[in-house]
Amino acid sequence: MADLGRPTKTVEIIQKYNFNFRKKFGQNFLIDEGILEKIVSAAEVTKDDVVLEIGPGIGSMTQYLAEAAGKVIAVEIDDQLIPILKETLSPYDNVTVIHGDVMKTDLKKLSEEYGDGKPFKVVANLPYYITTPIIMRLLEDDVPTKRITVMVQKEVAERIKEKPGSKEYGAISLSVQYYAKPEIACIVPPNCFMPRPNVDSAVLNLDPYETAPVSVKNPKFMFQIIRASFNQRRKTLANGIAGGGLGIDRLTVEEVLESLGMPKTVRGETLGLTEFAKIADALKEH
Ligand code: SAM
To answer: Which among 84, 198, 213, 239 is placed 20 to 30 Å from 64, CA to CA?
Structure first.
């Protein structure tokens, strides 16, 4: 039975192993049974699933995942946690702990070696210092994933979900929305973690699309255009792209915008994926 979702148990384990929280690894452990249950149910984990957990910590969520899933593969960077996980996960024979940095781990190989090559469900309380790189890696790399359910800072979850025109809308909203449908499952207050973070968190579900919602000839080029136009937020799209080091000058962008029936002074913040796809294709052809 999962027994780690209580603060007293977490304190007991931490003291027993003389564990020191490492800020550089974004360690905020979950200490709320209700939230742990909510995450597993938001991910809709079943015995058919192979779950990839990023950063199991002392194994609190891993225990819940092991009970619900067919298999769990958990990648943890902090060497202090490896002997702890050995103890806390000893009742489960369907969990494999890998000691390593998830950003340097070959996830496809992991899936073939330990997960029967099945697409992963990724479930994680993500370390906040690499939230975006991890999400983008999961979406962009050819790691087959069925669903990604992650705890992130509330503000990041909201930014990912934003639509054109809002203040928080940015390159991350467009990049994620090209690959997956984002949905916030619940908001989680700081007192559900040890140590407490300074801000609210949110559980974010990302369901990857089988077919992208817009068609674009060169998605990589479109993302370069998107990043360039949001790098200089208050500038027009033409100035943003011209200053983005892509070898494209302002007049070219303005000509392309006019040919697409858009004003020369349009700003990136007001455009959606459909417009960025058209602009990228037209700039490539120009
Ligand atoms: N899952 C645990 C929980 O919810 O209680 C811990 C979550 S804590 C927010 C993030 C975890 O990710 C920590 O255990 C940390 O050591 C681990 N971590 C940080 N950077 C990592 C990396 N690059 N690769 C793998 N794990 C990492």
So the answer is: 198
Name the pLDDT band for 142 (thresholds 50, 70, 90). Answer: confident
Identify how many contiguous H helices and E strands the chain contains and give both numbers: 12, 9
pLDDT of residue 141: 83
- Please provide the average confidence, as pLDDT, over all residues in the chain: 95
Is 280 within 8 Å of 222 (Cβ atoms)? yes
Greatest CA span in the chain, whole angstroms? 68
**For residue 286, is pLDDT > 90?**
no
> From the CA of 161, how far away is ligand 1's center (Å)?
24
> Nearest CA to 176 among 158, 189, 193?
158
pLDDT digits (tens, 9 = 90+) for 194-236: 999 999 999 999 999 999 999 999 999 999 999 999 987 778 9
Mutate which of 78, 98, 130, 151 for ligand 1 pocket (most atoms within 8 A of beta carbon): 78
Ligand 1 binding pocket (C-beta < 6 A) is: 25-30, 54-57, 60-61, 75-78, 81, 101-103, 125, 127, 130
Tell me which residue has its CA closest to atom 19 in ligand 1: 25
CB half-sphere exposure, 146, CA atoms < 13 A: 16
